[in-house]
Amino acid sequence: MATQSLVGTKNRAGQVVTDAWKMMHEAERTPCFFTGSEVIKEAIRRANCDVMIAYPITPQSEAAALIGELFAEGFIGDYFRGESEFAVMSQCAGAAFGGARVFTTTAGPGTMRAMENFPMWAGARLPIQMIVTCRGINSPLSIQPDTLEISYLLNTGMLVWHAETAQDFYDWILKGYMVSEEPDVHLPLALCCDGFFVTHTKDVVNLTPVDMCLPPYDPYRSPVPCMDMECPPVRMMRDPFVMKSNYISYATHASWQQEVWAAVERSRKHAIRWLDGLIEVDKPDADILIVSSGTAVSQGREAQALLEEDGIEVGIVKIKVLRPWPGDEIREATKNAKHIIVPEFNVTGWLAKEIRATIPDAGRVYAGPHVCGGMTMPPEVIAADIKKHLGIKAESLAGRGS
Amino acid sequence: MSTMYEVLPGPEHFLPPAAASMGVRLPDPGQAHIHGKIVNEDDAMEAAARQFLSAKVPTIFPGPLVLWAWNEKAAKKATAIRHLYETIKESVTPSQQAMLIPMPDYRPKYPKINPEIEINPNHPNLTIWHNKIDACMFVGVHCHQANLSLKIIRGGTYCYTIAMCAQAGHEDAMVSFRDATADKIMRLADWVKKLKGSVEPPKD
């Protein structure tokens, strides 16, 4: 394909177009000490992006602004600010319809405001990548970390991945394009992280060489034609197919929806290859497993260490990919666990609900601890909840000041 | 997801599931699939050729990607498809009727499609039913539209479906090839020629 034939040539910024697998797995890495926002910039610098569209909303504003610098340096084909998140996501669709590799970032209320666009992106099979730096969405206003918005994305037809660390973030932005642009997938990717915890803290991240970039997006491999007002999907939106009340219209639309979710399923094979599995398991034979995603996994690891000091062995299951849902993997990883603890940074415990719906003997799942609205989740709280769940007396962290 | 789901001729259901959602996985390069199971490509070639030779109305549905000479590869594929069609026509008995019906675009056709001259992904069954097509092959159709068609056909007709896909293949077809080239289409024509006379034609 055209994409492969471009390997070895230079892009607009003078970077060498490199085979993506070699770039991500074989090229020399350089350790750097960066914030998550800076890491987003460095990943996009190497992503051979055509268009980035921005709108300021905390905590993604910094990343969006930094990518503006990339535009000024010649690494992005076009960059502009939309009038609102809704406008941004609509403009992203326009750019993707036109055959561009598109990137954007959003957070919290911005995600919610733009929500109508996400099933539209998926239905139109647009492989846009959107970083979601999760924060509170409800009134009263909160800009602090909270993962409730992820639950709204789960049924849009987008791929949804949840990064734990800045290193995940760096690698998955680049790998994400490779998965979502596969012709059998060709869907948008919501790459989520916990705002501030990842975006505004510094970490050591191993970067690929700055003179290498991904192969460009090849729109001719798209499973639907590029933008053309006489052809679907654009034509579909104003055609009688969605307006008529008859069996054929309904059946076509139903099949269309099924095809979107079939494409989500197809991404499984590619995501397993690129991410080395949809989940990651540490000590699968432990009776107690902490199963979570995002930075709740990091806190779980700290709790694991605390409990080990008390002679309590705990395993960890890190869920990397939420859509497609790694049901088989979670069933296998948890088959011997007696207690499954699901810490989450949101009020509803949506991840625990998904896990309960997945495994046999769902009574093993303890949905918690939950924190939200920007609260931290000290490892001591997870450890205390596990002890309490096991019937072991544990000191309440909240009572330390008394 | 582990599965026992088989992709078989219908009519399957009022709204059959997408095969991918039932755990059917696409083949890797060099492979193909029959009824949702991964096989080597030659097995699928033979299966497809046998379907063409045993069908009353074996039909090829070429789509926009091969109907217009938008690049050299497309023109070569179109020539190969014409060759395959001619080979099928020469290889079947007079009681069988080989057809070549294009899918020129994807616009829903209202108030009514002319099923004699075209097929449409939004209501492919109209063309299948009208022409009594019992085996067909999609080629040069954008993947999303091909999957839409293949699933609707499986839902409402007994037609045996084959997909000659230029990308990763189609779970919703009963036989699917991937990475289609003009050479691969010519190979399928060779298989039809090779099996000519050895496959029982349809009764009555």
Explain the overall architecture.
The complex is a heterodimer of chains A (402) and B (204). Chain A has helices spanning 2-5, 20-25, 36-45, 61-73, 85-97, 108-113, 117-123, 148-153, 166-180, 234-237, 240-243, 247-275, 295-309, 327-333, 350-356, 379-389; strands spanning 16-17, 30-35, 51-54, 78-81, 102-106, 129-134, 159-162, 189-194, 202-207, 212-213, 279-282, 288-292, 314-319, 321-323, 339-341, 365-366. Chain A is an alpha/beta fold and 402 residues long. In chain A, strands 4-3-5-6-8-7-14 form a 7-stranded mixed sheet, with helices on both faces. The mean pLDDT of chain A is 93. Chain B is an alpha/beta fold and 204 residues long. Chain B has one domain. Chain B contains 6 helices and 7 strands, in the order ββαβααβαβαββα. Chain B starts with 30 loop residues before the first strand and ends in a 9-residue tail after the last helix. In chain B, a hairpin with a 2-residue loop joins strand 1 and strand 2 (37-40). In chain B, helix 1 (41-54) crosses helix 6 and helix 3 (72-91) runs parallel beside helix 6. The chains are: A alpha/beta (402), B alpha/beta (204). Chain A binds chain B through residues 125, 182-184, 186, 221-225, 230-232, 235-236, 239-241, 244, 248-249, 251-252, 254-256, 258-259, 261-263, 265-266, 269, 327-328, and chain B through 1-2, 15, 17-21, 25-26, 64, 105-108, 110, 121-123, 142-145, 147-148, 151-152, 155, 167-169, 171-172.
